[in-house]
Design a protein that fits this description.
The chain has 404 residues and is an alpha/beta fold. It contains 13 helices and 18 strands. The protein has a domain of 209 residues: 3-Layer(bba) Sandwich (FAD/NAD(P)-binding domain). The strands form 4 sheets. The protein has a 7-stranded mixed beta sheet, with helices on both faces. A 6-stranded mixed beta sheet has the order 7-2-1-11-18-17. The relative contact order is 0.17. The structure holds flavin-adenine dinucleotide. Flavin-adenine dinucleotide binds next to helix 1, strand 2, strand 3, strand 12 and helix 8.
Length: 404
């Protein structure tokens, strides 16, 4: 097979994973990443089902487990921190809401990037500004002023992909699901060692803390923007400046008990504060000629599903495998990639029962009902059924493309 010159934009999860597979297969791969410095930490993500097999085939599973969070599970807690429902990580066959393989997104990205660097060229602190396709390739202009020719260009820049914006006429691809989520590190220690604690407040608000490896915690503050949301949150649009984002969170979380006041106090001191409007990406097709999307750029399922990382890892594996199988013919490979992935993505994009309302219940009564149904789901007869439901939504018959 002739080696292809491939440009991948974005070095999160899908980008370095694809770079590793294509580089190992002998292609000439460049990864361009907008951020100068790799972002460590961030939110915890879980790796499920077929994605675990992908990491094993990459030879990286041991590294991922060593860097993992090893959480005991999650608990819904009341205003005073009293545990109402406890869901251990082993519930639902290890693939439940908190899965057995949990790792910080930044740590997973670093493991993938370190492995890929032996096979790819990296261009950090730069980004694509224009893409012009012609019969034999794609002419790419970079923000730093240079222009280069590539055989293929891959957009792996997450939900708000630049490649998608430049090459796909898809202004409605990003579909907000009606919630805003922020996360940041705090020096507060976890209320209970190894446990992820979540506190829901009426008005569709949720505060949570997750243990970090350094003894501190990652705080999560999330709220709905639609009907039934707290007054300050109703119809809220994410402000642009950090100060305004902090002010919005402070006003939405006024009156929320538990650790919420301490988390709000810690928020301005966090160096890794991040806030985003939760959204899914839905697109009719994932390629245009020689340009293709992978991971969240193609099909973000939103953090609510816990499937984004798995879809990104599996998508990168399938895209690389189909390119090899088609001996580098991108037309055949891109069509097959989509055929193989579509149903898995469709299931991965299904929001958990109750959707945003289930995640952020409106009233005290609804919070109680959600907790009661979670308690029932973890009881023996139902938990077996739920394990099957979780494994079906994660289930995917991973093709074997052989070892590059
Ligand atoms: C709070 C939260 C919790 C989550 N929990 C889970 C979970 O439990 N399980 C799960 O599977 N998933 C979870 N996710 C989702 C998961 O993080 C994503 O699905 C996954 O990271 C997608 O990988 P990606 O490589 O497609 O995109 P990303 O990881 O977003 O990486 C994109 C990369 O592209 C770079 N980039 C962006 N724009 C440009 C540009 N113009 N030029 C060059 N580079 C660019 C970015 O800097 C980044 O490095 C969660 C997400 C959040 C926010």
């Amino acid at each position: 097979m002739t080696a292809l010159k491939v440009l991948i934009s974005g070095s999160g999860i899908a980008g370095p994973a694809l770079g590793l597979w294509l580089g190992r297969a002998g292609h000439d791969v460049t990864i361009v990443e907008r951020d100068m410095e790799a972002r460590t930490g961030g939110q915890a993500v879980d790796v499920r089902g077929a994605a675990r097999t992908v990491l094993e085939r990459m030879g990286l599973m041991a590294d991922v487990i060593a860097a993992g969070l090893h959480e005991a599970g999650f608990a819904y807690v009341g205003r005073r921190g009293d545990v109402d429902v406890r869901v251990p990580v082993t519930a639902f066959g290890g693939d439940g809401i908190v899965a057995e393989v949990e790792i910080f997104r930044g740590a997973l990205s670093e493991i993938l990037r370190d492995a890929a660097l032996a096979h790819v060229t990296e261009r950090r602190g730069d980004s694509i500004t224009s893409l012009v396709q012609h019969e034999r390739g794609v002419r790419v202009a970079f923000a730093h002023g240079e222009e280069q020719e590539f055989d293929l260009v891959v957009g792996a820049e997450g939900t708000r992909s630049q490649v998608r914006r430049l090459a796909f006429d898809a202004p409605t691809a990003v579909r907000p699901i009606g919630a805003i989520m922020s996360y940041f590190s705090t020096p507060l220690s976890a209320p209970e060692r190894g446990w992820f604690h979540m506190h829901s407040a009426p008005g569709r608000r949720m505060a949570a803390v997750r243990p970090n490896l350094d003894g501190g915690t990652t705080a999560l503050l999330s709220f709905a923007t639609g009907a039934g949301a707290a007054a300050a949150a109703r119809g809220a649009v994410l402000p642009r400046t950090l100060a305004d984002q902090h002010a919005l969170l402070r006003s939405v979380f006024t009156g929320v008990g538990w650790l919420a006041p301490k988390l709000l106090d810690a928020m301005p001191h966090a160096s890794d504060f991040h806030v985003d409007e939760l959204a899914q990406v839905r697109l009719g097709g994932w390629s245009r000629g020689r340009i293709v999307l992978v991971g969240d750029a193609a099909h973000s399922p939103s953090p609510l599903t816990g499937m984004g990382t798995s879809l990104a890892l599996v998508g990168a594996y399938v895209l690389a495998g189909e390119l090899t199988r088609a001996a580098g013919d991108h037309r055949i490979a891109f069509a097959r990639y989509e055929q193989v992935m579509r149903d898995y993505v469709r299931r991965g994009q299904q929001l958990p029962p109750g959707g945003v309302d289930g995640f952020l219940p409106r009233t005290r009564l609804a919070i109680g009902a959600r907790n009661a149904s979670m308690r029932a789901m973890t009881s023996p007869p139902l938990s077996r059924l739920m394990s099957r439901v979780f494994s079906q939504s994660d289930g995917f018959d991973l093709p074997d493309y052989g070892r590059p």
